[in-house]
Amino acid sequence: MSAVASWRDRLPASLRPYFEREPLAALMLGLSSGFPYAMIGATLTTRLAQDGIDKKSVTAFSLAFLVYNFKFLWAPLVDGFRIPLLGRLGQRVSWLLLAGTLVMLAVGWLGMLDPSDDLMRVAMAAVAVGVAGATYDIVIDAYRIETLRPEQLGVGSGMSQYGWRIGSVAAGSLALYVATLGDWSTAYLLCAAFALPAMLTGLVLGEPARHVVVAVHRGWRQAWQSVVGPLGEFFLRRGAILVLLFVMLHKIGDTLANLTLRLLLNDLGFSNEEIATWDVGVGFIAYLVGIFVGGMLYAGLGVKRSVLVALVLMAASNLSFAWLASVGHSNGLLAFTIGFENFSSGIGGVVVVAYLSALCNLAFTATQFALLSAASSIVGRLLTGTTAGALIESLGYVNFYLVTTLVALPGVFLYLFMLRAGLIDQSLGNAGYAEPPK
Predict the structure, then answer these.
(1) How many CB atoms are closer than 10 A to CB 326?
(2) How far apart are CA 342 and CA 346, in angstroms?
(3) What is the phi-psi region of residue 433: left when phi exceeds 0, alpha when psi lies from -120 to 50, beta otherwise?
């Protein structure tokens, strides 16, 4: 232990918090959280586009992400239902093992299907990956928040975002390279192994110390209370409705832009190798830099002002997509566009996730964070799945990305209002405090 402490003490003070046990655990949890998103996001979009599936059908597949937006409906199950036999390992650990196994099975099923033979069955498999991935996210988020100490929420959110990006990029890159050399089925089966880091983390660390045990739900009355209790506790806080509205609005433009990016790259003639190099490679590095800068902003400016900076940057980054669309096939401009967007998203990922984590009550961590994280992109995903393809075909890519910039502005203005009204502090839960606030 002393050797470990001595090694950590040699690091610069700004880096030491990142190498504590809890933030490192958040990194491993993020690895497993990010890869299902890649499997039904950019990777599946590229696969469908290369198989000649039309744009409206491709963008409709983003509706599989809507499962993530309704995960708060079954999050109380993760909070309160004890899994037989596995439950002896602890509430969070047992759910990590179960949900991780379901993700691996669903990803394997999706990989074995051929979109050109049965597109409907592929859609069903994509939804199955969404359900399993959303369930995994519920328990991963709860485990992360309850494992981190209050003062570690910012650093832990950053490490979680590092892990999420590494997991999604590594899985996406592996899938592209394996598909180029072999086939998509093998690619998906290999990527299923990315579910393992979170499962192993749970087995090594065990049940989180800050987990608040809730009563075992027996009967309809207790089951009903397990749903309305967490939601009621949140909505009784001052400004809770505005907070939830902000969470729903702030990522609309970002979600619309990101879920249609691979369509743009395909139509501009970028190859799999170019996409893997610039979109995945440069984006990965820029995102990591953004996460580190986000941690510095969080520490230097505090959560309120750092969130505002992130919102402005994320809105502005959509303009670079419009620039790329107007210029056409340009590796240099693609590198800039991807770099700027991922840098902005990295900053936002740290400070916004830290803010959402601090909104949770430790008695209802899984349910409340599921509600908040699901709300954060539901509007953007719904618009992408129902109208994005048609908008691109009618407006063209340039005007489409200009529209995504405009729809990001209401979230910025609402946050400014909340900031001036003092609602940011008043809406926090006890997860962000060493002691519950008086």
Answers:
(1) 13
(2) 6
(3) beta
Sign of the C-alpha dihedral computed for residues 242, 244, 249 and 251 taken in this order: positive
Q: Sign of the CA dihedral 257, 303, 289, 413?
A: positive
Distance CA 48, CA 114 (A): 10
Counting every residue written for the chain, the total comes to: 438
Report the SS3 class of residue 161: helix
Q: What does the pLDDT read at residue 436?
A: 44
pLDDT tens digits for range 140-167: 998 998 888 877 777 888 888 888 878 8
Q: Is residue 420 very low, low, confident or very high in pLDDT (cuts 50, 70, 90)?
A: confident
Determine what percent of the chain falls in helix, strand and coil, rounding each to the nearest 5.
85, 0, 15
Token pair, residue 342, equals: 């991922």
What is the dihedral sign for C-alpha 408, 413, 419, 424? negative
Q: How far apart are CA 367 and CA 142, in angstroms?
A: 8
Decide if pLDDT at 44 tops 50. yes
Residue 343 vs residue 396, higher pLDDT: 343
Amino acid letter, 14: S
HSE, CB side, 13 Å, CA atoms: give it for residue 78: 31
Q: Residue 32: CB partners within 8 Å, gap ≥ 6?
A: 100, 103, 136, 140, 163, 167, 194, 195, 196, 197, 198, 199
With contact defined as beta carbons under 8 Å apart, do 253 and 404 qualify? yes
Whether residue 199 contacts residue 32, with contact meaning beta carbons closer than 8 Å, is answered with yes
Residues 6+ apart with CB under 8 A from 204: none
**How distant, in Å, are the alpha carbons of 15, 43, 355, 413, 430 from that of 296?**
11, 32, 15, 24, 23
Radius of gyration over every alpha carbon of the chain, rounded to an integer in angstroms: 21
pLDDT band at 388 (very low <50, low <70, confident <90, very high): low
Tokens matching residue 197: 């880091």
Distance of CA 158 to the CA centre of its chain: 12
Q: Is the pTM of this model over 0.85?
A: no
d(CA 160, CA 144): 8
All residues at 6 or more sequence positions from 392 whose CB lies less than 8 Å from its CB, including other chains: 55, 59, 260, 263, 400
The DSSP string of 169-238 is HHHHHHHHHHHHHS-HHHHHHHHGGGGHHHHHHHHHH-S-TTPPPPPPP-HHHHHHHHHHHHHHHHHTST
Tokens of 246: 């902000």
